[in-house]
């Protein structure tokens, strides 16, 4: 972000009477003003002007889940998450980032992803489970995301089965499918690391025509954050939900849910922040779930963020857990038996908070319909 653009963004927030305060799930959960979007941006401005030190700021800029609710509420659509990423970069560069955040960036040095894991093994096993294999290249490639492969590899198998169920050509699984988009580096504040990672991945994707992305936050990184860094990604990016919805409509795939559409909802739908506000993708996921499950209940409540993104579980685990618990409680109030989410990252987070809750990925529900 050019300095003049950052300065305009900082000025916009600092001169605003906190009109987006109500929209922030983190500030609402923590019940304090210091982590409201406006106050965090004020802190960012003071840090940029060197009126306060990175050591003084510490973990505070990391109290944001990058849910974009404040951006949506803002009359100017000010990119607060990006302003906070720049604040985090100053904290990170000064060596004042929390230990857990530094561990995330260290994992990239080890394995090229936030988990520090060799994800090619999980990819290979998921492919074998679906009766296919990993290739070296392909024009249309499936990109699960590192969180999916590490925490919910069954979603990869289910995606491949769901595609076959819709009667569409199955995207290739290639060596690049085991890669990470690099977004956790940006969340950590390692702008240099994120930029270098994005350039390397863009180079590896040359020759790929279309990328089908499972994790909406990864899709947002490709479509919004890569261009912000002037990283050219010469590939069409589409979420798995949009891809499957298109395939179902194009091939007029049958649905087992017709008889259930007027009955009680067995599924409640959690709209992930990355898909809802990061990508503004609303119709495709709901259309897909309705085809697969029939009547669908919407989660009640003002805030839909489960707290899984932005490295919030690392920086503020109690807050992230409380946000997930609120979503699970909202799910229970619907009377539905299964909570469905379009985000593998949310899937893992919600399951970790309540292992007994019936939480499924949208892709998996489609595969089992």
Give a structural overview.
With 369 residues, this protein is an alpha/beta fold. The strands form two sheets. The chain has a four-stranded parallel beta sheet with strand order 5-4-6-7. Strands 1-2-3 form a three-stranded parallel beta sheet. Helix 3 crosses helix 6, helix 8 (119-129) packs parallel to helix 10 and helix 10 (154-166) runs parallel beside helix 14. The protein has helices at 3-14, 25-30, 37-48, 54-57, 69-73, 80-93, 99-111, 119-129, 146-151, 154-166, 183-188, 191-204, 216-228, 240-250, 273-278, 283-293, 312-315, 317-334, 344-353, 362-367, and strands at residues 140-143, 210-213, 236-239, 267-270, 296-298, 338-341, 359-361. Strand 6, helix 19 and strand 7 (359-361) form a beta-alpha-beta unit. The longest helix has 18 residues, at 317-334. The radius of gyration is 20 Å and the shape is globular. It contains 20 helices and seven strands.
In short:
By secondary structure, the protein is of the alpha/beta class. It has helices spanning 3-14, 25-30, 37-48, 54-57, 69-73, 80-93, 99-111, 119-129, 146-151, 154-166, 183-188, 191-204, 216-228, 240-250, 273-278, 283-293, 312-315, 317-334, 344-353, 362-367; strands at residues 140-143, 210-213, 236-239, 267-270, 296-298, 338-341, 359-361.
